[in-house]
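FAQ: What does the model actually see?

It sees only this:
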Amino acid sequence: MSPEPLITFAIASTLLALVPGPDNIFVLTQSALFGRKSGIFITLGLCTGLLVHTSVVALGIAALFLVSQTAFTVLKLIGASYLLYLAWNAFLAKARNMNGNAMNVPELAALYQQGFILNLSNPKIAIFFLAFLPQFANPEAGNLAGQLFLLGIIFLIISLIVFILIASLAGLISQWLKRSAKAQLLLNRIAGLVFISLALRLATASR
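And it is asked to produce this:
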């Protein structure tokens, strides 16, 4: 592939990674509550999901969601249900103590798993990749699947960098939140409302 479409793709991917959505909002809220490291493990889970979506698109399986309303509906309802589950946990979450010791802080492995499931259960990502990636590929260059996989990896790397920056900035807030129980509870409630709105948007999404 020539460098021109790759540069254009990288710029577009960076802008897309910054657009508020379920993934970066989850990184933002959880990093603010539990610190930078938590946000990084969520990001790793999200990017693992992106790797799966990339592989699915490169192999052409994502086209199934374009032709099968049932497959699309089932997966989007799973994703919406998981977002509602995260919202429920956010509303039930209690504030941590003054020393920041974890009373209800998820383990890092659990955060990674949450990020992975959140990303993987959103069929719109696979469809977005199916529509977005081929625009920057050149069939005449050969090995179209390889080109799509390369573009997906570039998108993944950019998302990883952007999300880690978000986690790092939001993690700075966590030091203040450790000293403010009211602020912790407020942020949990805001996160819960955001997850509910995202769940409703996903549940009502069309292909």
